[in-house]
Amino acid sequence: MMFRKNILVIDDEKDFCFFLKKNLEATGVFHVMVASHPDTGIRMAKRGVPDVVLLDICMPSRDGFSVLEILKKDIRTVSIPVIMLTAMEDDIYRKRASLLYGDGYIVKPVSYKKLFEEIERVSGDQDVSRTGRWTLTRIKRRWRWWTWR
């Protein structure tokens, strides 16, 4: 039996999300959940604990960086790899995502091959169990850093 990775896409562009979901699910490897509002995405991540989050930066009401910060400060979601999937190309955005513990950064438009490779990279290079979660030691280390900050 093949294990399917659960992907959460948080992006306000509904057409982009529709095509992204269709293409990722067509591989048979991914199950994709979509949140078109940042607050909905945060709730879905805390409740469903996906294997990877694909997160846009420019969204109404809350930008992707604040969503990333919320996800990385919560003990329930700190271990979820987050790939910033955005149209923002500047290095300053890449650096900010990296400082907030973003696990990857891809500029739109993106080829699906590159996206698949990035998802595999961020979900496969960790010390993980079958579910794709970090070890408890690694979670505690990151949690101490955030609470100290």
Structural write-up:
Strand 4 (82-86), helix 4 and strand 5 form a beta-alpha-beta unit. This protein has one domain (5-148): Response regulator (Rossmann fold), CATH 3.40.50.2300. 30% of the residues are buried. 46% of the residues lie in helices and 17% in strands. It has 149 residues and is an alpha/beta fold. It is globular and about 30 Å long. It has a 5-stranded parallel sheet with strand order 2-1-3-4-5, with helices on both faces. The chain has helices at 14-26, 38-48, 64-73, 91-99, 112-124, 136-148; strands spanning 5-10, 30-35, 52-55, 82-86, 104-107.
Salient structural properties:
alpha/beta, Rossmann fold, 17% strand, single chain, 149 residues, five-stranded parallel β-sheet
Structure summary:
The protein is an alpha/beta fold and about 150 residues long. The chain is built from 6 helices and 5 strands; from the N terminus they run βαβαβαβαβαα.
CATH topology heading: Rossmann fold
Low-confidence parts: 125-140, 145-149
Major sheet description? 5 strands, parallel
CATH level-two architecture: 3-Layer(aba) Sandwich
Order of helices and strands: EHEHEHEHEHH
Shape category: globular
CATH class: Alpha Beta
Number of strands: 5
Distance between the termini: 43 Å
Arrangement of strands in the largest sheet = 2-1-3-4-5
Oligomerization: single chain
Provide a count of the helices: 6
Mean of residue pLDDT values: 83
* Rg over CA atoms: 14 Å
Strand content: 15-25%
What class would the helix/strand composition place it in?
alpha/beta
**Tally of separate domains:** 1
Q: Which range best describes the helical content: under 10%, 10-25%, 25-40%, 40-55%, 55-70% or over 70%?
A: 40-55%
The H-level CATH homologous superfamily, spelled out, is: Response regulator
